[in-house]
Specification:
The complex is a heterodimer of chains A (259) and B (369).
Chain A (H helix, E strand, L loop, with lengths): L2 E11 L2 E12 L2 E6 L6 H8 L7 E6 L2 E2 L5 H7 E4 L11 H6 L12 H13 L15 H13 L5 E4 L8 H18 L2 E5 L3 H7 L2 E6 L3 E6 L1 H4 L2 H8 L1 E8 L2 E9 L3
Parallel strand pairs in A: 3-8, 3-9, 6-7, 7-8
Antiparallel strand pairs in A: 1-2, 1-4, 4-5, 9-10, 11-12
Chain B lengths: L4 H12 L3 H38 L7 H13 L5 H36 L11 H14 L10 H22 L5 H24 L3 H11 L8 H20 L1 H7 L3 H6 L4 H23 L5 H13 L3 H25 L8 H19 L6
Helix pairs in contact in B: 2-3, 2-4, 2-14, 3-4, 4-9, 4-12, 4-13, 4-14, 5-6, 5-7, 5-8, 5-12, 6-7, 6-12, 9-12, 13-14, 13-15, 14-15
Classes of the chains: A alpha/beta (259), B mainly alpha (369).
Chain lengths: 259, 369
Amino acid sequence: MPSIRTESLCFSYGGNDILHDIDLDIEGKGLVCIIGPNGVGKSTLIKCFNGLLRPTSGTVSVNGRPVGDYSVKELSELIGYVPSSTTMSFPMSVIDSVLLGRDSKSKWKLDPSDVLAAYRALKVMRLDDMALRNCNALSAGQMQKVNICRGLVRDSDIFILDEPTSNLDIKHQIFITNFLQILAEESGRLIVMISHDLNIAARFADKVVVLKEPGVLCAYGRPEEVITEEMIRDVYSVSSRIIAHDGRPHVILDYAENW
Amino acid sequence: MRGDEPVRDAVAFWLDGDDEVSNEKHLGEYRRFTLSKILFIFACAIVALLVSGYAISVGEYSISFLDTYIRIWEHVTGNIVDITDDYVVWELRLPRVLGGILAGIALSVCGVSMQSMLKNPLADTYTTGISSGASLGATLAICAGFSLMEGPYAIVINAFLFSLVPMMMILAVSRMNNSSVTTIIMAGIAVMYIFNACNTVLKLWATDEALANVYYWSVGSLTGLSWSDVAVMAVFVVPGVAAIQLVSDKMNKMSMGDENARALGVDVERFRLLCLLVTSLVAASVVCFTGLIGFVGLVCPHIARIFIGSDNRLLIPASASCGAALLLVSDVIGRVVIAPNTLQVGVVTAFIGGPMFLYLVVKNKQTRW
């Protein structure tokens, strides 16, 4: 069963404390959304999960084993990662960019299963007709979907996405988050994503992690337990009203209480 | 959940796969896409092969184009018919051509590697200081008589060892905490300026003869390359280029940025260090024999990129064949255009490559880098 566990996780950038004593135990299949204000350490937290950043103190374990004990390659096979944005120094074709997510068995021979997986991912994201185009001909939203495709084709047990819906319209935001939720449910994967949209998180996440200033864990649990008017006021200083929709909380935002 | 049937279908499609017909269609499309790039590589390789024959045939002692290949075949099979032809082809001209091919391959592949590793389209042996290091080594040997080793190879060895100095500095900088790709390039440029200043100072006290020799070395030439020179170059270039080709998929991942490359399984710091080390050795092994041949390392990767894109798995062989072809064509033009005098290959590569590159950049409206 896929799992990520942190114990007293702290992280500092050049003396600036970002994360303080984060204790989290995320276990089993499902979609986990991480929410919280800008700069609170959401991206830092997920980069500690997959070893891109080394905690200042505390531990991170993936599938019961400390992250530091994995090699870079082992960790990359275990955890698929989609960054919030990608800048390619020399843009390549869309299909080749997706294929970077596969570790081809042969260095010389084309592996049909790699190519078909890349096309399948592009088809899911409705980008298959752009497969041979250069990436720099794509919009920010399309590039975002290419990044998700690259993460999908890695086919790893744990899938971490940093704001995968930030450049997308509402239809795509709903589709991708719903897709990730059902994928987690059907394939037994653990999928962790950062989102700024409370309603998207409330509607599709199985569990929600809330971080608040100054980089501390505020809450972790089911959306109906975590997404409350009090939490939103406490974390975001925003007044709101919560109504129930399809058995899940739905946030009606009111006004910012201070600036 | 209400209304999520289309999304469930998409997940089922992702998990179960596409139908046979669509799979065949997609595979065919990708194969055709790749084939067109492979054709470019073959076209450049054929040009290089044909120009090789022509380069061997031209000169004061003329041999027909077809005869050059026959003479090579006769020598290889031990069935030498004309001793003079054999001497001219095998001893005088073939080392120059093979040296040109090796230099073209090495400089352009080093260009691809440096541009990918440093994520900078202007990175080559000049911007990383390797050329100026080699130049200082040669100038020290020619002007000041200072050489780290004695003998006929004093200039070559000096140039080789001094070209490794900027590489050592770059590697040291890249090992420092918080060093970025920009820091590495800036370190290379700083070294280049320091070495150029040293070069200028040395030239102030140089004799006219020494100055002429330094000039001759600094413009780059294939003249006088012997079999032993070619053998030494090959010892570095062949395994070096093969090693760079073997890690081309990792170089592709590096183009996504350090963080993404690491998430895709590349040990970024170690990989960059090893790549820069191999690249510098390959570049230094060529520059110390040929002198400073500019432009090939910078432009050939970009010319190849315009035709085949930025996938390093294909870009490396494409740049290699393009570099070999450009260097040989330039050498032939340099030997023919003002015969019986010779125009140095480094000058011709800039004259040919510059306008060609400008034309392609302007014609190719879509920005690729």
